[in-house]
Amino acid sequence: MTMNSTEGCLASSPPGANLDPAVALFHSLSDAARLAIVQRLASGEARVADLIAELGLAQSTVSAHVACLRDCGLVVGRPEGRQVFYSLTRPELMDLLASAETLLAATGNAVALCPNYGTETTDETRNEEAGR
Predict the structure, then answer these.
(1) Which of 16, 19, 66, 87 lies deepest, with the highest CB count within 10 Å?
(2) How far is residue 38's CA from residue 47's CA, in Å, rounded to a whole number?
(3) What was the pLDDT predicted at 65?
């Protein structure tokens, strides 16, 4: 059986469809540390010690985020002796991130400037906040 381009697509879901799994997926990727771990694992498997050294994060931070990604089914661990090598479970995750990069490029700074979720604060936003 082949799947057409709209089967399983969130955009084609009927109103009231259960979007909880998609919400959980996007939430699992909404943290900068988890996203950095996913991006690093896209280039190959790594141990927690490797992620600590390469990403400059604390051991407890890396371990907690790897556990979260593992619990979400996005990362899997391969034990080897006393070490565990982590890798992405699905290559489709990189397709999702590539699509996100395309969308971000197309929207310019719109997402970064979003008053609810943006990462940048403009002078106008600072002035509005000061006037409240």
Answers:
(1) 66
(2) 13
(3) 97
Both tokens of residue 4? 């057409």
pTM of the predicted structure, to 2 decimals: 0.73
Residue-wise pLDDT for 79-102, tens only, equals: 999 999 999 999 899 999 999 889
Nearest to 35 by CA among 22, 46, 26, 23: 26
Contact 79, 48 (CB under 8 A): no
Q: Which has the closest alpha carbon to 36: 64, 59, 60, 65?
A: 65
- Please check whether residue 80 is in contact with residue 88, taking contact to mean a CB–CB distance below 8 angstroms: no
Domain 22-89 fold is Arc Repressor Mutant, subunit A (1.10.10)
Q: What are the residue ranges of CATH 1.10.10.10 in the chain?
A: 22-89
DSSP string, 6-33: TTT-GGGPPTT---HHHHHHHHHT-SHH
Burial 67-98 (b: 16+ CB within 10 A, else e): ebbeeeebbbbeeeeeebbbebeeeebeeeee
